[in-house]
Design brief:
CATH architecture of the largest domain: 3-Layer(aba) Sandwich
Radius of gyration: 24 Å
Strand content: 25-35%
CATH superfamily of the largest domain: P-loop containing nucleotide triphosphate hydrolases
Number of domains: 2
Bound molecules: adenosine-5'-diphosphate, magnesium ion
Structural class: alpha/beta
Distance between the termini: 31 Å
Number of strands: 14
CATH class of the largest domain: Alpha Beta
Order of helices and strands: EEEHEEHEHHHEHEHEEHEHEEHEH
Number of helices: 11
Length: 337
Amino acid sequence: MIKAEEAIVARDLRKRFPVGMGLRRKQVEALKGVTFTVRRGEIYALLGPNGAGKTTTVRIISTLLLPDSGEARVLGYDVVKDRWEVRKRIGVMLSVERGFYWKLTARENLYYFGRIYGIPKRKLLGKIEEVLDLVGLKEIGAEDKPYEEMSLGMKARLGLARVLLKDPEVLILDEPTLGLDPPSARMIRSMLRSLADEGRTVLVTTHNMYEAEILSDKVGIIVSGRIVMEGTPSSLKRTVYKVVPISFRLKITPMADLEGLRTSLGMLVEAGRTSITVNGDEVRLRIVIPRVEREESYIEAVTRISYEKGFKLLEARVEEPSLEDVFIEVSSRAAAN
Ligand SMILES: Nc1ncnc2c1ncn2[C@@H]1O[C@H](COP(=O)(O)OP(=O)(O)O)[C@@H](O)[C@H]1O
Ligand SMILES: [Mg+2]
């Protein structure tokens, strides 16, 4: 039996997609067992790079896609068996296909969808004004703009307005701030926060570490169809900042031995923690080392190896870890466990 404080529960969700045709037909494993729980009134961010399985996960939880196995419940209802009960209670905003009428204005679109949701006319008219106001479409004078003339930010605001029309207990949003202007992104984040403060539950996906950090109560990092790490933003950050990337620019001389450079670096840095790209007569090198180790000793070692292999060091720079470093770090740790 489900506990009342658990708004969304996903257990071991798996999903494969067929790709290719004929002899080249094969399967992509989009989800390899996704498990997580979102508590009532919580903002849960599913954070991951492109292709990690974020959209597949939210489509399953939104009843738009069937899992191959595993189960998911929203407010105690099974997303497959009780999909109509689930649909009544969720507001869904998917990033790619927002499905509005291009010739209709923001207000007209909301009217159209409000009627589809079965909201009585009188109530709907008031509700439309309320949500147009809430998402700031009135403030920016876009409420009577046809959808086709709207900016991405306006479209996203309208998407959120449509979700709010239904007064959903649970909101599910797939990369709602992707590509938006900063004011629209900020508006959407602050709306989600106030909705959660009212006791609603929010499941949101993002590939933006910063966004996950400022927006959510809990973050699940998803990589290649698995949640590899989960925690509050601050607990996650503590783990994440344990790596330091160092980048180098090397000049290629006539004696340069690229394979030799690769081999020697392979002995210095763990597998998967180096990248080498050739750019004209230069080589860009990037290594990621544990924070606890001394950066200078690595810079010295790389300088020596480069010289031995016929490269001249032009520049070495200690960087801040990127989200990608974090993913590589947590996935390699997950693989080792
Ligand atoms: N309809 C589909 N057909 C084939 N492959 C798909 C389909 N949907 C998703 N995939 C694949 O499943 C993986 C996860 O995709 P997706 O859930 O969209 O990731 P994300 O939203 O994190 O970018 C990717 O490898 C993607 O190419
Ligand atoms: Mg996606």
